[in-house]
Amino acid sequence: MTNVSIIGIGQTDVREHWETSIRHLAWYAIEAALDDAHHHQVDAIYVGNMLAGQLSNQNHLGALVADFAGLRGVEAMTVEAADASGGAAFRQAVLAVQSGLVETALVVGVEKVTDETGATVLAALATSLDADYEAIHGQTLSGAGALLMRRYMHTYGVTLADFAGFSVNAHANGAANPRAMYRNRLKPEAFAAAPMVADPVSLFDEAPAGDGAAAILVTSSERAADMVAQPVRVAASALATDAVALHDRRDLLWLSAAERSAQRALAAAGVTLDEIDVAELHDSFTIMAALSLEACGFAARGEGWTLARDGHIRRDGRIPISTFGGLKARGNPMGATGVYQLVELTQQLRGKAGDCQIANARTGLAQNLGGMGATAVTHVLSRD
Amino acid sequence: MTNVSIIGIGQTDVREHWETSIRHLAWYAIEAALDDAHHHQVDAIYVGNMLAGQLSNQNHLGALVADFAGLRGVEAMTVEAADASGGAAFRQAVLAVQSGLVETALVVGVEKVTDETGATVLAALATSLDADYEAIHGQTLSGAGALLMRRYMHTYGVTLADFAGFSVNAHANGAANPRAMYRNRLKPEAFAAAPMVADPVSLFDEAPAGDGAAAILVTSSERAADMVAQPVRVAASALATDAVALHDRRDLLWLSAAERSAQRALAAAGVTLDEIDVAELHDSFTIMAALSLEACGFAARGEGWTLARDGHIRRDGRIPISTFGGLKARGNPMGATGVYQLVELTQQLRGKAGDCQIANARTGLAQNLGGMGATAVTHVLSRD
């Protein structure tokens, strides 16, 4: 089995990039990743993207991005799994290198969401739900998040204010990340007083969709050791799915795909949860952060929110999450989000996370979710 | 290196499936493939699809299709490369099995195009072109095909009627395929007299977009030998790209991605063109069939059309193409087309192609193109 390592990373700011086309965004991230690796030869490109067809009238991003980044001719394609597209694309790059047929693979997550008006974007984002049984009735991502959150509050006797710690932590970390969409700190009182998007999901509960691109260059660990000073090893990679529609799930409050992919990844990496120094989870809503913590095993069922209440998710806590702001403050560039998570984890493991740095980060976990968790991709990265 | 073999195939008719949802189409093809293999355990699903987000308001097909096909939980994602999505998805399945991390992979190409009205479909199909430099000016697939065809006619002194042989052959073969969208034979006179879509591309020149799904189950050749009586080996797999916009290409009349992927595939398979008994090429337009024949090396530059004129592409010819009707008569279910090609090639190599059978087919080539050839995926299959 070929081991795979990360040798280059790049990213753009996450924000409203009205003046920048989708191909430019991808190029900026790719160029940064290639420069970071001091290596400009690529055998295959996996583009993580969800919405270019709907919001930019552009499918076929693989060939387009390859050409614009100066890599015309290279194998390239798009991988899509809603907002887990980035993580799924990274998984394909890992498999490609492990197959022995691709020497150096480039992953680029790219998304441009903010050019279109609200209703168009809402409908486009809802394509991650079940079109025939959820979206057609007017269900939106925020509405689906509200259903989960309300059920959780009811079942476990948790109040709205109990979720504040997730957003407060994300914004505190985002304030230290120059790439973050929101760099303002958030007070618990402000969280509790925020206007509702879909009760009980509020403005400071749901992560904002943003534009951005992030890129990662991977190759075999054997080659990586000769190429860069600080390769970061992909210790494990796993993807699992669940029913897309919430009403089809066996248990509304259990992310079975997240559990399954996390268990597989931890087993393959041969590490226990105690050895995970930092985790980038998919905090598209505070409820998703809570449910991910539970599904991964960081908290018991119904108790994910207590990790936020008790400060365990902070940079100096037991299991730091959203260390660069997470989806909530760094922003959620949908199909690119999973690649941002892995770029940030790499920064942590290299010890190059700047003001976002976690002390002694040796092993990290990233979990990227699609829709309301119907796709879950978990990667474990390790500093050797 | 793990060798990969096909152990099951399935397909639906290609036609206007107004009464059938996209998840049903996918399920029908998957069920047929699993039944064909007498094997119902799958480790990963690669969905080839281009247009569900735009035309069915449904992204996230991986999880959706896995669940609906009774495979909830399984790793699943969508692979997109315009109308080369199916071929690209198959390539990912091959890499996944070769990595050693996925034992049995399922590829399902699925597309539902005909529910929407003409203008919506035209715009959706044009997302395979360059949105910012082609489609925004009103360019369509037919228009792009017309540009290529006119230039070819001008450069090589070829007339419209000289292309008739491609469509006549496709319809003759489609008439023998019970799954084909069009089963009527076509006379050369009818081709020459057809109404224009985008001069010189006529109604009988351009392949019709249709709905359909096709599925393939693959596993390691070692396991395949114990599982089925007639495994078909994936002798080689290669994907290459080119500039998306026609005006960006170095040579308008040369499909460099098709050439590159074909050369790589032939070299990896260790076979020469003479050993290819049957080829499924991407005849989305007659000009694309001619250019593919040239790029693969079956004809000299500017002479691809002569293979049609001289009958060499017929079932009893030197290099039979479109043996089940090709895109022109079987129909072009965009993101599913590449999987149909491979299903048909498998039927040929098993000797189970019915009235479409080529005598003594041992080695076959499939080439799936995206847009106007900006993506090209070439596979070589072999009967051991």
What can you see in these coordinates?
The structure is a homodimer of 384-residue chains. Chain A is α/β, with parallel strands linked by helices. The first copy, chain A, is built from 14 helices and eleven strands. In chain A, a hairpin with a 4-residue loop joins strand 10 and strand 11 (375-383). In chain A, helix 1 crosses helix 3 and helix 10 packs across helix 11. Chain A is globular and about 55 Å long.
List the helices and strands and how they pair.
The structure is a homodimer of 384-residue chains.
Chain A: E1 4-11, H1 22-37, E2 44-48, H2 52-55, H3 61-68, E3 75-80, H4 85-98, E4 104-111, H5 118-125, H6 141-156, H7 164-174, H8 188-192, E5 196-198, E6 201-202, E7 212-220, H9 221-227, E8 232-241, H10 256-269, E9 278-280, H11 286-296, H12 304-309, H13 326-330, H14 337-350, E10 363-370, E11 375-383
Parallel strand pairs in A: 2-3, 2-4, 9-10
Antiparallel strand pairs in A: 1-7, 1-8, 4-7, 5-6, 8-11, 10-11
Helix pairs in contact in A: 1-3, 4-14, 10-11
Summary keywords:
homodimer, 384 residues, alpha/beta, nine-stranded mixed sheet, globular
